Amino acid sequence: MSAANVQFLTLEGEPCPPDQKPCRFTFRCVNENRDKCSPNYPDVNCAMLLIAGATDIPRDGQGLNGGRPQWDWDGNAEAPTFTPSVNCESHCGWHGYIRQGRCVSTSGQDEPE
């Protein structure tokens, strides 16, 4: 099972204090960027994903019309679930979900550690 190791961030990409609502999240990538998905690597697509409803940035899954893709979060900080899927196929090659704190494939199978 592949732990997603989700980290919650402020809008600026800093670690989110416990008393503040997170605006972004990052996770441990399943593929090539395994050790690069953190605020220290802003050029990596899955490094600073927006949490839906946490900012005034317009939501647009296609990234058109001035909006940005955003993910719904179930509110569970210990074992978070985000929807929709994270699609980095054009970058690192992974397309899957973060469910209950784990990275799973689009078919629902746990990704290898």
Written overview of the protein:
The protein is mainly beta and 113 residues long. It has one domain. It is 0% helix and 27% strand. The chain has no helices and eight strands. The chain has strands at residues 2-3, 7-9, 24-26, 49-51, 70-73, 82-87, 95-99, 102-105. An eight-stranded mixed β-sheet has the order 1-8-7-6-5-4-3-2, with no helix packed on it. A hairpin with a 7-residue loop joins strand 6 and strand 7. It is globular. The relative contact order is 0.22.
Describe the structure concisely for a colleague.
The protein has 113 residues and is mainly beta.
Q: Can you give keywords for this protein?
A:
113 residues; mainly beta; globular
State the helix count.
Answer: 0
Distance between the termini: 6 Å
Tell me the total number of β-strands: 8
Q: Overall pLDDT, averaged? A: 84
Integer-rounded radius of gyration: 13 Å
Order of helices and strands: EEEEEEEE
Strand content: 25-35%
User: Ranges with pLDDT <50 over ≥5 residues?
Assistant: none
Tell me the structural class: mainly beta
Q: What oligomerization state is this entry in?
A: single chain
Shape type: globular
Helix content: under 10%
The main β sheet shows up as: 8 strands, mixed
Strand order of the largest sheet: 1-8-7-6-5-4-3-2
User: In total, how many domains does the architecture comprise?
Assistant: 1
Topology:
Layout: E1 2-3, E2 7-9, E3 24-26, E4 49-51, E5 70-73, E6 82-87, E7 95-99, E8 102-105
Parallel strand pairs: 4-5
Antiparallel strand pairs: 1-8, 2-3, 3-4, 5-6, 6-7, 7-8
